Amino acid sequence: MKVGKYDIPQFRLYPKLVEATKTLYVTFKADEAPDLLTVAKLLGHKTDKSGGFLTKLADMRSYGLITSRGVKVTDLGKKLTYGLNDQEKNEAFKEALMNIPLWKEFYSKFGKTLPTSNFWANLKDITGLEAPDAQRVEEIVRNAYLDDVQYVKEAKKPENGGDGMDEQNNVDKNLPKTPEGLEQLTLGSDIKVWLPKGDKEAAKKAIQLIRLYSGIEEED
Questions:
Q1: What global pTM score does this model have?
Q2: For the stretch 58-92, what's the b/e string if a residue is b when 16 or more beta carbons lie within 10 angstroms of its beta carbon?
Q3: When you count CB atoms within 10 A of the terminal residue's CB, does the N or C end of the chain come out lower?
Q4: How far apart are CA 100 and CA 150, in angstroms?
């Protein structure tokens, strides 16, 4: 669909195009599809000449899910369908949306929400449409954008200016655990060493070395 100087996809990214991309990836892996008719039937179309099929391919290319020539799943399409974790999939999803220039403009200005009144005025300024045309398509454009962007998960900010302890706790979870047969010796606020359990001589030597190199004074 043409919106002023921009084009917007007819098909929404999720679930239809994500599912189509996954089907292609599962079937052809890293290879290019042999022909369009095979792809059309795989995606539920009777012929590769149908308008629905051709529009679907064009939209998948616009989002960056398949290559611009032929039909081959891109690295972005692979991450979106088989990312290692939710974060990687979410980043791929957002990247795909930002491949749509008008969506990128909206996201930079409004985030995941759009103005509730006189949105057509913003649409007119951004796209170059005349006012009557902007009013005519504003709900179509609004619904398409909100349908796409609703699945983007944004990073949570600490509530009430929090101290970031939740983030620190997540980091602490990734720290290595104390190996079997050793015990952790803590000196000061952030100096930690592992020593054989019950080896007091090793502990004394470790403390002496740590104090020497860290500048911590001997206790009386």
A1: 0.71
A2: ebbbbbbbbeeeebbbbebbbbbbeeeeeeebbbb
A3: C
A4: 15
